[in-house]
Structures are given as C-alpha cells and as structure tokens.
From TrEMBL:
Database matches in Pfam families: TctC
Protein name: ABC transporter substrate-binding protein
Domain of life: Bacteria
InterPro entries in the record: BUG (IPR005064), Bug_dom1 (IPR042100)
Species lineage: Bacteria, Pseudomonadati, Pseudomonadota, Betaproteobacteria, Burkholderiales
Native species: Bordetella genomosp. 1
Signal peptide per UniProt: 1-23
Entry similarity comment: Belongs to the UPF0065 (bug) family.
Keywords: Signal
Length: 326
C-alpha cells in the first residue's frame, strides 16, 4: 500500500478516500512488470516484449518483462497470484492457464479464482519441426519414420503445461508412436538444442519458428492450423499431410492478481486495445503468423469467458488421457 494512502488511512475515512482516488488517477506512477512464464527469446517472450513496447507508449511508463521459468510455465502464475494487487505486476500466458489445473494435482493457484482479467492478445499457430539432418523430408515420411523409430526419437518441449508439450502429446497420439520427451525452461532453449542437432523433433509456435523455417535451419513438416497461414503460404497443414483434424492454436491472455483496482484494469485494458491496433505491433505479429483477436476477445470478460471454456475443454481431454505432471 503506497505510503500516502497508509498515512491517510490513519487520519480518517475522508482523507483515505481522497488518497485512494489520487493513487488511482496517478496510476501508473512507475514501471510495470510483465511476467513471462518461459525463457527469454521464446514465442511467449517475443509477444510479451513487442506488446509491452507498444502498451508503454499509452501508459507513459515502461513495461519491464521478467522471465520467471519452471514447471512447465506454472511458477509464473503462482508468483503473480500472490503479488500485490496494485496494477504493477501483470502476467502474460497462453493455453497453459487452461490446461494446468487438469495436469497438476497440487497447483499453487486457481486460474479461474486468483486473477483479474485484462484481455486476450493474439492466436498463434504451431509448426512441427525436425533437426535438419533427420531423414524424412515431408510429413507422410515423418509419420512412417516415427512409427519405425518409436521412443528412439527425442521430442523437445517446455515441460508439462507448455503448448509444445500439448502439441507433442497430440502428435504422438495422432501418429501412433511414443517419443522420448526432453523438457527445457522454454522453447527458446529447446530450439537451440534442435539447431544443435541434440534433439530430433520440436512442435513450437510460429512466433519463434518462422525465421528458422525461412532460413532452412530445420526440417519443417507443416502448420497445426486447419487452413494454410498467410505468413507461410506454401506450408502444408498437418491435415494435408495425413493427420486429419489435427489442430492446435495458441491463444494469449493478460492477467493481474485478484483485487487489482478497477481503475488500473481499465487503464491497462485501454493500452492493450490501443496496442492491438498499433501497426508497430500488428505488422510484427503478422510477419510471425500471429493473428490479433477480435475486439470482443480484447476485454476482461472476453478473456474470462474464453478461459472458462478452454479449461472445461482441455480439462476433460487431459483427465480422459489420465496424464498428470505431478
Ligand atoms: N510458449 C512457450 C515459450 O515461450 C513454450 C511452450 O509453451 O511450449 O517458451
């Protein structure tokens, strides 16, 4: 609690009311931290830094990105859920906010109870990649090879709760094989391992993989959307390559601790919506295959409703698969 508000609280309700009103109109009075659950340089970090740079123009304060990695991206929400609800600590996260409650039996937070909601950002396709020297050159060839090799193939991911883990799980199920999975603190280090030929397969978001695909540093088997994407018009979908109905899209939300003042939520939401129209942000996202969400998803209600439906959907699928992370 700001010192001025505390002092006012000691001198009576009217002074307190005035001090709170003053603190809220002064918000933000200093830099805001945006917590990213994965390693710097990865797809979530790429969106966070570009979004933060745009939002800070409206807020008049810098947005400082803090990478809090670990446990498949669940340590960061646990930290933000317990942070001061003063508007100076925010979280950006993806589908992991909806899958973690089913994957983790001892989760340190409840995504549907411990947060205030700011809004959604963008939807990002995923891509299935292999190290450059893996023999198969296309998805049908990879499907055949993966069935032959089984767990001799190493799939890198960012741990249970990461979308790279979710995509890997769906991929091995669709192919009918079982990879050996190697977890990293994010798909930035996972990509380094793939480029270094230390792992064989990686399913990751276009916000990190498009530059590597265009530079032909990796083998590329397709995108995880049902339709081809504008950013990679010649790239086949996994559905075209033989995995009928295979779809994984990565959505992103901005959160604050439960109890964050409405005035702060409104200001951050206004800065978010301005950023989602800022060509400096939208052009960069388009190049990286990310699709800005429509206005109705850019609101607190638009995020909260979506999170509830995704939690119900993925929760049922994960519980049916009987997989747990802890
Ligand atoms: N999006 C995560 C990252 O930025 C990776 C993942 O969720 O798979 O590293």
């Amino acid at each position: 609690m700001p010192a001025a508000v505390l002092a006012a609280a000691l001198s009576g309700p009217l002074a307190l009311h005035g001090a709170i009103a003053q603190a809220e109109t002064a918000y933000p009075a200093h830099a805001i931290t945006l917590v990213v659950p994965f390693a710097a340089g990865g797809p979530t970090d790429v969106v966070a830094r570009a979004l933060g740079a745009s939002m800070s123009k409206t807020l008049g304060q810098s947005i400082v990105v803090e990478n809090r990695t670990g446990a498949g991206g669940t340590l960061a929400p646990a930290f933000v859920a317990r942070a001061q609800p003063d508007g100076y600590t925010l979280l950006i996260h993806h589908n992991g906010m909806a899958t973690a409650p089913a994957l983790y039996r001892k989760l340190q937070y409840d995504p549907l109870k411990d947060f205030s909601y700011i809004g959604q950002v963008a939807d990002v396709p995923m891509t299935v990649l292999a190290r450059r020297d893996l023999p198969p050159d296309d998805l049908p060839g990879f499907i055949k090879y993966a069935r032959e090799q089984g767990n001799k193939l190493n799939l890198a991911n960012a741990g249970p709760g990461a979308v790279s883990q979710l995509c890997g799980m769906l991929l091995q199920e669709a192919i009918g094989t079982q990879f050996t999975t190697i977890p990293y603190a994010g798909t930035a280090p996972a990509m380094s391992a793939l480029l270094g030929q230390q792992v064989d397969v990686l399913c990751d978001q276009t916000t990190q993989t498009i530059p590597q695909i265009k530079a032909r540093h990796v083998k590329f088997y397709g995108v995880t959307t049902l339709e081809r994407i504008k950013a990679l018009p010649d790239a086949p979908t996994l559905q075209e390559g033989g995995l009928k109905g295979f779809e994984v899209k990565v959505w992103h939300g901005i959160y604050a601790p439960k109890g964050t003042p409405q005035a702060a939520i409104d200001k951050v939401n206004a800065a978010l919506r301005t950023a989602l129209k800022d060509p400096a942000f939208t052009q960069r996202m388009a190049e990286l295959g990310a699709e800005i969400v429509p206005p109705e998803k850019q609101t607190p209600q638009g995020l909260q409703t979506w999170l509830q439906s995704e939690t119900d959907k993925w929760g049922a699928m994960i519980r049916k698969a009987g997989v747990y992370a802890d």
